Write a sequence for this structure.
């Protein structure tokens, strides 16, 4: 674009590549994304992929981790905006209803989890993101007096992941169907919270 500095053009190309990677991972699968396909989708020359990123895998990792971080930050904001962890967890679960299990974001996450089984660096980075989020959730439960905050946070996180996976198989699955059970697990009064 006219009037842009080289640094601005470089940032724009990086963002185009990252956006294209997020789309393609879900559409084609992690291992089917090639430098050529990625560059075509981003509308740039294929040499720019390796100019801006050390490798195609590094680009795919960054695109995925940025999207995961964005989603987890938004989900954490839902937790922080509610009066109790139980209400926050229900809000997070309801927010997951926007995903079908076959939408681009769901497919990106599913592909990333699978790729993390073969990519130790992606595994470690995803593990850190999930662990940080689970820690924040456990902290919120602990502050409300939940007797087993770490275990409850682990189950909630597994339920969220499973919910997304199952929605791809059962589009009728909804947050409303499982929220009552989740409420029993996270409600501090029914779980013997300290007075």
């Amino acid at each position: 674009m006219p009037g842009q500095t080289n640094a601005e053009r470089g940032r724009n190309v990086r963002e185009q590549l990252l956006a294209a990677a997020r789309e393609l991972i879900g559409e084609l699968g992690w291992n089917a994304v090639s430098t050529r396909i990625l560059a075509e989708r981003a509308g740039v020359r294929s040499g720019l992929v390796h100019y801006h990123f050390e490798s195609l895998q590094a680009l795919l990792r960054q695109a995925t981790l940025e999207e995961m971080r964005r989603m987890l930050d938004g989900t954490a904001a839902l937790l922080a905006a509610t009066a109790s962890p139980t209400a926050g967890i229900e809000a997070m679960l309801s927010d997951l209803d926007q995903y079908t299990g076959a939408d681009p974001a769901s497919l990106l996450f599913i592909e990333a989890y699978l790729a993390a089984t073969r990519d130790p660096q992606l595994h470690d980075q995803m593990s850190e993101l999930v662990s940080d989020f689970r820690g924040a959730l456990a902290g919120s439960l602990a502050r409300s007096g939940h007797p087993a905050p770490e275990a409850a946070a682990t189950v909630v996180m597994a339920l969220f992941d499973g919910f997304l996976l199952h929605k791809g198989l059962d589009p009728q699955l909804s947050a409303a169907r499982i929220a009552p059970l989740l409420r029993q697990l996270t409600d501090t009064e029914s779980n013997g919270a300290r007075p």
